[in-house]
């Protein structure tokens, strides 16, 4: 030990300090963005390798030369997560919602109807059933079996229509009921500004996976409710995006009957 200390020079001290800096910088680099990390890592590595060749830093030179031999393996280990992600992205096609033409038409009808009703401040509540059945949660209602069209939705919710109060239910791409009472949410955190129409939408969405569109009679704003959450004052593009996504998820979760795509 005393021999070791006696032969310890200033050069050795610098050598150890350099090693400490390399380890420290290396730890910091790992926290940064992958591309920057890679460039910085390679730059630091080769600069130090060259430096150590022309200086007397034996330990640093030895370490870097040893590392250089297996640098590819080391890089693969350090960046394994990023490399895996890059390969996965390379092999993956962009995910577009898989949605049928009839559903696209239905979505456009819903967007048209809600926009028209919002403009005229006609209140509306429209439930789009996905996987969970909701029949046991509906109190009253009138059975209908009709295509989803903006004209029909507009006329159902007209104030003098006998079935304008309550919710319209859309199942399997058809309007199946109107004038339905939904369970009201008991969530105390719902903003006081939301009345029973919005609370009914929230109540159903807390119990099922249905998507619910609400047009406020008072403000003329359109909201979408799902999973017990409300997105208030939505533009048509956002409604379209969420409906497409929601109906696509419905399909991907559900076992397909034979013959269906
Ligand atoms: N449980 C329910 N299920 C379905 N619809 C309901 C229910 N309760 C109330 N509604 C509908 O909401 C209407 C009353 O809306 P209210 O003004 O209380 O709510 P709101 O959330 O403030 O909506 P708006 O912004 O349109 O006024 C009723 O006329 C009825 O059509």
From TrEMBL:
Entry superkingdom: Bacteria
A biological process term (GO) from this entry: cAMP biosynthetic process
Transmembrane domains' residue ranges: 6-27, 34-57, 63-83
Keyword Transferase: yes
Alphabetized InterPro entries for the sequence: C-di-AMP_synthase, CdaA, DisA, DNA_integrity_DisA_N_sf, DNA_integrity_scan_DisA_N
Location of the DAC domain: 80-236
Gene3D superfamilies: DNA integrity scanning protein, DisA, N-terminal domain
Pfam hit, one: DAC
Keywords: ATP-binding, Cell inner membrane, Cell membrane, Membrane, Nucleotide-binding, Nucleotidyltransferase, Transferase, Transmembrane, Transmembrane helix
UniProt enzyme class: transferase
Record-level Gene Ontology MF annotations: adenylate cyclase activity; ATP binding; diadenylate cyclase activity
E.C. designation(s): 2.7.7.85
Reaction(s) this enzyme catalyzes, per UniProt: 2 ATP = 3',3'-c-di-AMP + 2 diphosphate
Similarity field: Belongs to the adenylate cyclase family. DacA/CdaA subfamily.
PANTHER family associated with the record: DIADENYLATE CYCLASE
Subunit structure: Probably a homodimer.
Function: Catalyzes the condensation of 2 ATP molecules into cyclic di-AMP (c-di-AMP), a second messenger used to regulate differing processes in different bacteria.
Protein name: Diadenylate cyclase
Organism expressing this protein natively: Pelobacter propionicus (strain DSM 2379 / NBRC 103807 / OttBd1)
Gene that encodes the chain: dacA
